[in-house]
């Protein structure tokens, strides 16, 4: 019966630690980084069959019987004889100007290409959003699919922000997953969140999936997860959002900043109305004349008023007019 065989790469300097052998034609050999595409598609480097170790140098990690292994167009469908993790594909593609091969499972294929299309509809309440990009941002978002314009300047916190009356009212810190992990390890993320928390609204957006935190090799995944949880508890007003891909992170940043600016405009308008109402209330708090005072003034002005009881509305009106003209 045909088998899929995975052996350790005898080259200690290679980052691709395993050799994958498939019985297609005279045999296909690839160098790869893991024994199965569980959490992400695995890059496979085609190798010469002569690299397959012989004799005592052969260290087989896994040998699995195959139900089928057939080439279909630019892919090789691989089905192994076991209950779980039994279907995968070797896909030939082209990227970065060269031919590339990836080993993917149905799960990693769905995660790598989320079936979404970012919307082009403008954010509500904003005709054209001006986004300030931090001067230190090396490869900034362009927001090309949205009604925006960008300006470069140094920001006190975050990588992208919006201003209201030259005041930074919201900011977003962008992170790739490797940058997120390194900033947790060296403590930079803790200081960044402290600066973001001083703004009215702020967030951190990560260009990857939360599940990839647990696929880290050079740092304990539990340490990263625990640090993220502790930072969110300490600064609950600065959410850390995992947006799967860079385009989705860019779209989330646009929507967040547009909503934050619209909210800041509303807060400003409400504040002005409240200030006006307070001044009116303060003016209305001036002491009001008593009925006896108005009665005495009316008699001095030659107006006929009763000795007791309420005064007519026109008497009060004439009193206010007379005293308003003297103020």
Automatic annotation (TrEMBL):
**Bilayer-crossing regions:** none
Outline the extent of the ERCC4 domain.
Answer: 130-210
Matches recorded under InterPro entries:
E3-bd_dom_sf, ERCC4_domain, Lsr2_DNA-bd, Restrct_endonuc-II-like
For whether the record's keyword set contains DNA-binding, the answer is: yes
Per UniProt, the keywords (alphabetical) are: DNA-binding
Pfam families xref list: ERCC4, Lsr2_DNA-bd
- Provide the protein name: ERCC4 domain-containing protein
Origin species, per record, is: Actinomycetospora lemnae
Upper lineage: Bacteria, Bacillati, Actinomycetota, Actinomycetes, Pseudonocardiales
